[in-house]
């Protein structure tokens, strides 16, 4: 499973309680759309840190990095390269 | 006593260019806020909304919510600020129960739009677009009206707001608050926080909750500045705003502070202007309080307690007593009397535990159109809070739990029945009970205990997905356990308390 799929299935399973991939588009707004809230984003970050052995700094917790599956995937890819 | 709308007009006259509110790039000074509110009042008149009528708001924190609130008050109308995270199944009964004449709702809020469409025959609608999309057609039309020439003269005891505290269960319960309730509670808070026009805060608490409303109204009453931050999802951004705005105060519930401390959001920011923090909305764990004071030693921490039924605030703990009276929520605010009484209503001596009763000018006029529910909690001017506790010899209150089953999760209050009703709709559920279980960040998390119908195949995802589609997100159970049976009393009533903390197993003889 590539990282985009992994991230998508985590969000589907943990915030929408489904494994139906069609329930969420890759560019759908996760925060503004009310899918991920303040504790949800912490769960998501903990998952990413563990799964991809990265460390998300406080100043990296911004909407540009987390408001869609696309954004999260791009952010994770940059962190893994760094 | 000067009512809150009058104070706004006074600030607009005396210091029109002082900033009242800010949200992202948008700023409203006192002059512009009062002007917009007067035009909103004129719009209400033009639409046939009269003094005493109710204006509902289905809005997250944004400038227009404040304009609508003060605009309704200038027109002599009452506001009904509904929980914007609620769903159609909540909005429709609330709007009906309040008899709302007009509802202000965002075009991007599907449930608010659906509910207001369903009630279109009775309730007019003013539609806003997303906060970053600029003024909507309706809002521009409102701003184009001439301001109401004179604010409506309202009696101090007239209805100012109805706050619905729980969802769909039975008849909705709306806390009816008068203009005097708001003004007196605001004055008491201003006194102990020693707020002045030079103060400023960054608010993450929803205005539709009593706590968030009190933060808003205290700041506007004294001519101070309030900056809206939409949410706590990105703690670093909230703290960045606190630093950039040189905020002097910040208010939260325990989970607010837990979230900010969790990811070291305070590190690297200059928060030297921050002189105080307030905390209400449930007991803060001792360790969390200590971490907070260590992270922000420059700020005094005010622990407080209150209820929507008392407008917001009942007690405050002077910061210098934080250690000496550790675990206390403090003493009564100005004008409030507290007593602890037994189950017969007899007043108990110091240090004896019982139910907390409160009397004072902030106590609600009653539950809206519900004499029976009002009579259950209001006795000769006293409010039965439903909270258990004791008063020490110095009059400091120590809380010891609640009589009701209300779950406190984050900043939210959830009635288990609201969640149970939704889960019971799922095929294959024979019985369900919902309780709060301890959670490090949220205080309590919602847990559902489900008995499957015979032969039913049912998993936790089905139940959570069903709730997700029908309830506010914060009401969706974090955990779902399948059990053989629910603990019940002899009369068959579910013992919710035993779900969260099962009684210890009897040891074998």
Question: Can you tell me about this structure?
Answer:
- The complex is a heterodimer of chains A (82) and B (509).
- Chain A is mostly helical and 82 residues long.
- Helix content of chain A is 56%, strand content 0%.
- Chain A has helices at residues 3-16, 38-52, 63-66, 69-81.
- In chain A, helix 1 (3-16) runs antiparallel to helix 2 (38-52) and helix 1 packs across helix 4.
- The mean pLDDT of chain A is 92.
- Chain B has 15 helices and 26 strands.
- In chain B, strand 25, helix 14 and strand 26 (479-482) form a beta-alpha-beta unit.
- Chain B is globular and about 65 Å long.
- The mean pLDDT of chain B is 94.
- The A-B interface holds A 13, 16-18, 31, 34, 36-39, 41-42, 58-59, 61-63, 66 and B 85, 231-237, 255, 259, 262-265, 267-268, 410, 441-442, 460-462, 464-465, 468, 473-474.
- Structural class by helix and strand composition of chain A: mainly alpha
CATH homologous superfamily assignment of chain A: ACP-like
Q: Helix content range of the residues of chain A, please?
A: 55-70%
Approximately how much beta-strand content do the residues of chain B carry? 25-35%
Q: Name the helix and strand elements of chain A from N-terminus to C-terminus, one letter apiece.
A: HHHH
Mean pLDDT of chain A: 92
The CATH architecture classification of chain A is Orthogonal Bundle
Overall strand count of chain A: 0
Count of helix runs of chain A: 4
Query: Could you name the ranges of chain B where pLDDT drops below 50 across 5 or more consecutive residues?
Result: none
Number of domains of chain A: 1
What are the key terms here?
heterodimer; A: 82 residues; mainly alpha; Non-ribosomal Peptide Synthetase Peptidyl Carrier Protein, Chain A; 56% helix; B: 509 residues; alpha/beta; 9-stranded mixed beta sheet; globular
Provide a compact summary of the structure.
Chain A has 82 residues and is an all-alpha fold. In chain A, 56% of the residues lie in helices and 0% in strands.
């Amino acid at each position: 499973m590539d990282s985009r799929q992994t991230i998508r299935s985590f969000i589907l399973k943990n915030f929408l309680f489904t494994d139906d991939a069609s329930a969420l588009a890759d560019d759908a707004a996760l925060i503004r759309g009310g899918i991920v809230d303040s504790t949800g984003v912490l769960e998501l970050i903990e998952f990413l840190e563990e799964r991809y052995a990265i460390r998300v700094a406080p100043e990296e917790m911004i909407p540009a990095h987390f408001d869609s599956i696309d954004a999260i995937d791009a952010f994770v890819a940059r962190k893994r390269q760094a | 006593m000067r009512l809150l709308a009058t104070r706004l007009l006074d600030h607009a006259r005396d210091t029109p260019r002082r900033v009242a509110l800010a949200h992202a790039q948008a700023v409203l000074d006192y002059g512009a806020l009062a002007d917009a509110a007067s035009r909103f009042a004129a719009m209400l008149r033009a639409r046939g909304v009269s003094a005493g009528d109710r204006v509902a708001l289905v809005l997250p924190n944004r400038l227009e919510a404040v304009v609508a609130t003060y605009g309704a008050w200038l027109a002599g109308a009452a506001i009904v600020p509904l929980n914007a995270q609620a769903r159609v199944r909540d909005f429709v009964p609330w709007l009906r129960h309040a008899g709302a004449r007009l509802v202000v709702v965002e075009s991007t809020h599907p449930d608010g739009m659906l509910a207001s469409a369903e009630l279109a025959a009775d309730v007019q609608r003013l539609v806003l677009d997303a906060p970053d999309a600029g003024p909507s057609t309706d809002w521009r039309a409102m701003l184009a009206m001439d301001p109401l020439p004179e604010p409506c003269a309202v009696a101090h005891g007239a209805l100012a707001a109805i706050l619905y505290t729980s969802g769909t269960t039975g008849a909705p319960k709306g806390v009816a608050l008068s203009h005097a309730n708001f003004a007196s509670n605001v004055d008491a808070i201003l006194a102990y926080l020693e707020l002045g026009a030079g103060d400023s805060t960054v608010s993450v608490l929803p205005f539709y909750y009593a706590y968030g409303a009190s933060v808003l109204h205290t700041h506007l009453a004294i001519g101070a500045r309030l900056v809206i931050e939409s949410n706590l999802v990105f703690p670093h951004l909230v703290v960045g705003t606190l630093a950039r705005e040189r905020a002097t105060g910040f208010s939260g519930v325990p989970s607010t502070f837990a979230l900010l401390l969790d990811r070291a959001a305070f590190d690297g920011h200059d928060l030297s202007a921050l002189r105080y923090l307030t905390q209400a909305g449930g007991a803060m764990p001792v360790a969390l309080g200590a971490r907070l004071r260590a992270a922000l030693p420059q700020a005094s921490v005010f622990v407080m307690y209150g209820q929507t039924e008392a407008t917001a605030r009942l007690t405050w703990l002077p910061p210098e007593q934080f250690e000496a009276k550790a675990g206390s929520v403090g003493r009564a605010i100005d004008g409030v009397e507290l007593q602890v009484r037994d189950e017969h209503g007899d007043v108990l001596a110091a240090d004896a535990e019982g139910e907390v009763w409160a009397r004072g000018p902030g106590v609600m006029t009653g539950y809206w159109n519900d004499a029976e529910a009002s009579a259950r909690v209001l006795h000769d001017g006293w409010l039965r809070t439903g909270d258990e506790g004791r008063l020490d010899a110095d009059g400091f209150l120590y809380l010891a739990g609640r009589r009701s089953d209300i779950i406190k999760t984050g900043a939210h209050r959830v009635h288990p029945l609201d969640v149970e009703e939704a889960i019971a709709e799922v095929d294959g559920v024979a019985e369900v009970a919902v309780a709060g279980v301890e959670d490090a960040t949220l205080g309590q998390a919602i847990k559902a205990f489900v008995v499957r119908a015979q032969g039913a195949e049912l998993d936790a995802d089905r139940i959570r997905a069903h709730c997700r589609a029908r309830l506010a997100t914060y009401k969706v159970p974090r955990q779902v356990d399948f059990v053989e049976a629910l603990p019940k009393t002899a009369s068959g009533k579910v013992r919710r308390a035993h779900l969260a903390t099962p009684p210890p197993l009897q040891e074998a003889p």
